[in-house]
Amino acid sequence: MENPQAKTSSLNVAVLTISNHRNDKNDTSGDYLQQAVEGAGHHVVERTICPDNRYAIRAIVSQAIASQHIQVVLINGGTGFHEQNATPEAIIPLFDKEITGFGELFRMFSFEQIQQATLQSRAVAGLANHTVIFAFPGSTSACELAWDQIIEAQLDINTKPCNFVSQLKKIAK
């Protein structure tokens, strides 16, 4: 019998929670993402909680982009419309290419759950230095939606007709 894991390309992922209130004990969204990533056969190589500050976010994401060991960055939080939410402003200038369809698709799926409130979601994604970066709201339900309905398949080399795996950094195993 064929091993399904043998067909999967294992990726190195950083999970970044943006919050002025969460910590290691109450970061349920970060917990969910770590479990989901590892459940899909990938590795969480870094997990950080960062205050909602444009420059702190940009510094952490810049380090991940420059790292030779991180291929994917999952950012939860800081994407709302409140004036202190700074994730899109922090990361969009770092993108080599923006993945505009991610935000559109996220809001389309989110509409089914939260109706017109999805209008204030500023979910974004992009590619920088062969690192794919996804940013979405910080609620656990938003993390589940982003991972289950969009991201997981795009990090699976078997997803056809396309996925992001071939565009990511090659990591020596």
Task: Kindly state the number of beta strands.
Answer: 6
Helix share bin: 25-40%
The residue ranges in which pLDDT falls below 50 over 5 or more consecutive positions are 1-7
Strand content: 15-25%
N-to-C SSE series? EHEHEHEHEEH
**Class by helix and strand content?**
alpha/beta
Please count the helical segments.
Answer: 5
Strand order of the largest sheet: 2-1-3-6-5-4
The shape is globular
Please, could you describe this protein's structure?
The protein has 173 residues and is α/β, with parallel strands linked by helices. Helices cover 35% and strands 19% of the residues. The protein has a 6-stranded mixed β-sheet with strand order 2-1-3-6-5-4, sandwiched between helices. The radius of gyration is 15 Å and the shape is globular.
Salient structural properties:
single chain, 173 residues, alpha/beta, 6-stranded mixed sheet, 5 helices, 35% helix, globular, disordered N terminus
